[in-house]
Predict the structure.
Amino acid sequence: MNWKRLLVTASLAAILPFSGAQQDTNPCRQVASQQVQARAGIKLDYTSDQKFLVRFDGETAYKCITSVPIDNDAASTMIDVLKRYFSFQSTISYLKDPPKSYQQLPVDVMGRFDEIKAKIGNKNYTNQYELELDIRSIIRDAHDGHFTYSAGILGLFTWSLNESIISVSSDGRELPQIFAYSDILNEIKNASPIVEFDGKSVFTYLQTYLKERSDPTTVVDPHAAWNRLMQSSASVLGKTGHKPSASLAFNHFQATQVYNGPSLRGKFANGTTFEWAYMAGSSTNLTKAQYFDGQAIYEGRVLNADYDDDEFVVKAMDESSKRVQATEMTLSASTTTSNKTYVGYPTNPIVTQVQFGSGGVVSGYILTNDSVGVLSLPGFRKADGASLASYRSAVSDFITKAKKAGVKKVVIDLSGNGGGQVTLAFDLFNMFFPSTRPSHLFRARAVPELLTYGRFVTGITMNKNKLFNSSTVSVVTDEYTNNRVFNADYSRKPGNARWASFDEFYGPVTIHNDSFTNVGQYEYDDDGLTIAKRDGSSPPFKAEDIILLTDGTCASTCFVFASLMKTGAGVKSVVVGGIPQNSPMQSTSGTRGSNVRDLSFLSESTDMVRNFAHGFTDKQMKGLNITSEDLANLLPPLDKAPFVVGSSAGVNILDTVLPTSPETPRQFVYEAANCRLFWTSDMVRDITRLWSTAAKYASGDESVCVSGSVDGPGSRVNDTITDSPGFSYSTTWENANQTNISKADSSPNSGGNSGSGDEKDDDSAGNLLQLTPISLAFMALTFLLVV
Ligand SMILES: *[C@@H]1O[C@H](CO)[C@@H](O)[C@H](O)[C@H]1NC(C)=O
Ligand SMILES: *[C@@H]1O[C@H](CO)[C@@H](O)[C@H](O)[C@H]1NC(C)=O
Ligand SMILES: *[C@@H]1O[C@H](CO)[C@@H](O)[C@H](O)[C@H]1NC(C)=O
Ligand SMILES: *[C@@H]1O[C@H](CO)[C@@H](O)[C@H](O)[C@H]1NC(C)=O
Ligand SMILES: *[C@@H]1O[C@H](CO)[C@@H](O)[C@H](O)[C@H]1NC(C)=O
Ligand SMILES: *[C@@H]1O[C@H](CO)[C@@H](O)[C@H](O)[C@H]1NC(C)=O
Ligand SMILES: *[C@@H]1O[C@H](CO)[C@@H](O)[C@H](O)[C@H]1NC(C)=O
Ligand SMILES: *[C@@H]1O[C@H](CO)[C@@H](O)[C@H](O)[C@H]1NC(C)=O
Ligand SMILES: *[C@@H]1O[C@H](CO)[C@@H](O)[C@H](O)[C@H]1NC(C)=O
Ligand SMILES: *[C@@H]1O[C@H](CO)[C@@H](O)[C@H](O)[C@H]1NC(C)=O
Ligand SMILES: *[C@@H]1O[C@H](CO)[C@@H](O)[C@H](O)[C@H]1NC(C)=O
Ligand SMILES: *[C@@H]1O[C@H](CO)[C@@H](O)[C@H](O)[C@H]1NC(C)=O
């Protein structure tokens, strides 16, 4: 890429005015001006995430983004850099060759990057968007919420529908059908299920959509991926509750960053056809950023647009992300911080975390009829304005009040919980089981760079030969507090002994034709992590009186918590939703990794190690056992790389492993919930119905569970399934078609079984229906969330 030419082009454009007509034909300029107009027409009090509701033409946005040029040299360099960073992803050898227990398709991460590089070499990409879609597809196929790459232009536009879907069963036992969400929410009589999208069966369409066009669903169970496509209040609460400014969260069906055409056509079982339009939205103020053509977008989003005459110099990543923020749309900030309400949630909580819905996410309820306490935990995030302490105290209040009310069963609802602060997982476990010491085992992929970072950090924090002064020790210790990847002083061997050195932790050991560190154990009592210490008091509730409820998407810290509750205390779990099919479903299928690290963290570690090493004596370097060659071989700092790397680029750096199967990362083990439920439309409108049903299972009523779902493979405490659980990704999707379309007219809103099911032909007049009234109802609902 010739940077001078870029400059010249840019200034020519500024000097030589195009005719108005020419300017208007540039799709980027068109969407920028449409965005300004759309904004002007919207009177609502917008808050940050609602920027995506300032919408413009989807097809024009697609033309704009595909006009962003590609620089093959820069792209090729970036792939080399990414491959080195992604070698820290702990699961790559398992992703390539997964055990039969794994329910997604294999992916050869490095092989796919090599293919991309070959395509770049052959000049096979005509624009940057095509390249980024290929990178995105690798991330999508890895199904790991800790393995992310969100950079460049891909996130500039989001295409969204103003309708959503949901699958509900008529009575909780019948196989669910897929409906327009608004039909269910508005209790439309005789609502007809959707049987086709894009001329294909809904199942074929949704399976393909998940594989090719959806944003990464990051779940290892296809049933949980299915749930990602469905409207879910818990998920909206989990995503928006902790942000004062947020009130909108799309599901994966409703919105995607991958262009999926101008509209989506479909057909109801009653024969009526419909077409839902995709509109584009952006969190960037396109006018302010001056994204008037593809070149400007390339400079702003792919390069850090800061360069001098001879050399392209990129800004530090923090500054570049600030730059992106600086051009974000400023929408009149909502001045009210009134409580948001969430569809289907009761209005009479006994406990809410401070700033519930605008910082806090915890709420607690008592279903007096059933004597059931419900603790709703849709996230474990440290919120803006609501502290971890307020999170803990809300949970502790709930326990006190529920005890006092004498509830018989406690449902802990983890639906929509994508994780957060790992300390909360241990804290909460301790609140429920104060006298149990659970163990949580992990390990990393033993890449050579890790050995250097680890020897450096651990060598200084342990400071065995007193080679380092206290200021060096305290800087490094502070920087790597609670960092079990580089600092072997913060973890223990299984059984709790200390590591003698980083080398002892590092190993490496060969497993699955790959190199791994030895297995380590979290030592959370001694390192200041927990506030709720084990105090040996008796647990407030018996394990058999607690039930975990999930929608399968439970990830990261949520997984850690669920895992402690299951393996540490024997608490059972109920899962809801999934592909319409009588089968078990896993309860925690979001990432089961222990630790995510941003690429920027790794990059900064290179800088830190090199800067310190520069001032160290030979004796100090010998003490650390780090050579100058080791230093040269560290990961290249990202500020030398040509793409802007956003903060959401990261790797899962620590696997979780079970003592019963220490060779297989937990990510690949099959672990069914003890019972699976189907959604009913009543539950959608009133979530307490779901909670009571989960509590019924806790009371021993297995009849509420989907047939074939009770105590499925891997549901028992020390059951570890690394072989086939009896089904696979392919068979699960093949069997998705067992929904009986001929019964499709049974209305989910008529209450109970429809039985008779007048057969209606699919060929009745296929009039194209614009779902305007329904869509408006849906939009109105969305806006209610803001109030
Ligand atoms: C490049 O594109 C050509 C034509 O579309 C195709 O035949 C070839 O296989 C592609 N090469 C690579 C490496 O993708
Ligand atoms: C068919 O079902 C859809 C979805 O419930 C509904 O909107 C539409 O009005 C129905 N069409 C007829 C002809 O009843
Ligand atoms: C479902 O059934 C339809 C019609 O029989 C068929 O075309 C489609 O391939 C099936 N889909 C799946 C995922 O098996
Ligand atoms: C929803 O989309 C339809 C087209 O699919 C459109 O006619 C309608 O105006 C949209 N509603 C809103 C509120 O944007
Ligand atoms: C976008 O930026 C333009 C130019 O700076 C400004 O006039 C406009 O008000 C901004 N729009 C929004 C929604 O912030
Ligand atoms: C939000 O809810 C809490 C608890 O339900 C209540 O005390 C508070 O007054 C509410 N805030 C607003 C602004 O309505
Ligand atoms: C609780 O019981 C009362 C009286 O039987 C009934 O009116 C109410 O609908 C019940 N509430 C729920 C949530 O089931
Ligand atoms: C093991 O890995 C090496 C290098 O990555 C590869 O060449 C070899 O084919 C692999 N062996 C097996 C059995 O997968
Ligand atoms: C501590 O050691 C570092 C590196 O060896 C050195 O740069 C620094 O000046 C020392 N600080 C003090 C207070 O001695
Ligand atoms: C220092 O590193 C080398 C190469 O990694 C290794 O062979 C040696 O055992 C290490 N020495 C010590 C004392 O750890
Ligand atoms: C599960 O395994 C652990 C250690 O392997 C053991 O301590 C524990 O008792 C087992 N739990 C059950 C319920 O078998
Ligand atoms: C579907 O429904 C028809 C008519 O009710 C019935 O004859 C058929 O057996 C059903 N098929 C399945 C797979 O349930």
